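[retry 2/3] IS3 family transposase: previous attempt timed out, resubmitting with same input.
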Amino acid sequence: MFAYEDKLKAIKLYLKYESYAAAINELGYPSRGALIKWVKEYKDNGDIRKENTRKSKYTNNEKQQAVDHYLEFGKCYSHTCRMLGYPSRELLRQWVKDLAPESRKLKRNGLTLTSDEKEAAVLSLLTRGDTSAQSVADKVGVSWEVLYKHKDQLLSKGVPINKMSESTNTDINKLKDQVKQLQEEVYYLQMQKDILEKAGEIIKKDQGIFLEKLTNREKTILIDAIRPKYKLSQLLIIVDNPKSSYCYHKKQLALPDKYQDVRAKIIDIFERNKRRYGYRRLHASLKNSGILLSEKVVRRIMREETLIVKTIKMRKYNSYHGEISPAVPNILQRDFKADKPNEKWVTDITEFSIPAGKVYLSPMVDCFDGAVVSWTISTSPNEELVNTMLDQAVSILQKDEQAIIHTDRGAHYRWQGWIDRMDNNNLIRSMSKKGCTPDNAACEGFFERLKNEFFYGESWIDISIEDFIELLDEYLEWYNNKRIKLSLGGISIMKYRESLKLIA
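[retry 2/3] IS3 family transposase: success.
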């Protein structure tokens, strides 16, 4: 019997944990069935009785439900009490005796089994599948307790193999074969996993690892890295590399690297130019330094050192606001070749979107050699952005020079401020067709190079607008003075103009 306070404490613990087992484990009382009844009474009445009396009997419906559960689920007293939470085993046994006397378990002490019968009964028990032990015991004619007793006796002595049925032997052999097959599959899957992980560590390809796309040299390096753990013959099969090729590349790898010095030079040029140079400009840089090397070797070294120039394309900024003023003809007609500086200029506006905000660039590009004649950077694509850029560009013109300035049909180049500046400086206007990007391909090509080399593939998370503008300005200075162009003979724009004595 439990005091009122003890019952209430158990109920509150259950409501706290929402678990009968947790409450009972912490208190050490009561039984699960008792706690279920207390909680039910508490939820129904809002409290529990303070008197230390309890019902002396269950309802007839509860008794019948318990007996039915006992008969339906294997005739196990403990299982029924555990699932229903009531009653005790002794009380349930009495209910079964009263309500279903014909279903009570009867002791079969008088039945004696021979040794063969015992072995057959135990074999049926062990291979019964989903059938209950009680059903097997009923067929044999003994209680399940006696059946398990025979099992313990026979297994402790050991049953001869020849006593087992042929079907059992066959099943065991099949299971052994399946286990062996599964072990082999697990072994090869683990080998493939280790190979891919090691390949990711050693080769480091940004596009992902595909064993079938690796060169035989890379496969040889990979095999040697993982070989202590697996057999060579197995690894050669997995990576699909002939043994003769493996032996050849292993021998070659043991030789000194004849490109060791130039390899370091290539990496230095690549990093010094902010990872913007591809193999052609790296080859030209080496040539300018007096190092003669084929482009094929440069490409191979770049591949081995994973020197990759990232290229990404994003949505283009659109400045078209309708037909604000009459459009002028397209004078250039996509002929961007100029015989001298300041003959043909192209311009446009491009947008840079970073976490700190948006930045706009308006450059003036000379078609003669790709020089950026002038540029302005702002956080707003307004009239001042393009007009200031035009004023800077005009300031470098000689009195006898008259440049053709080609633009798209954006609103900035159709406002009166732009038109007045063009007329006052005797400049010639030229415009692309509406929505025809190729008509201004020279400027679009500059923007693509700019963003591939400077913007894409970089993290701008902690960069402010002011810092970004400063970095962009530094890039444009580098573009004019240091960046080499293959079309100019592998030298920078300013050096090219110096070679032509166009500048001092």
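[retry 2/3] IS3 family transposase: The CA atoms of residues 321 and 362 lie 17 Å apart.
[retry 2/3] clearing retry counter.
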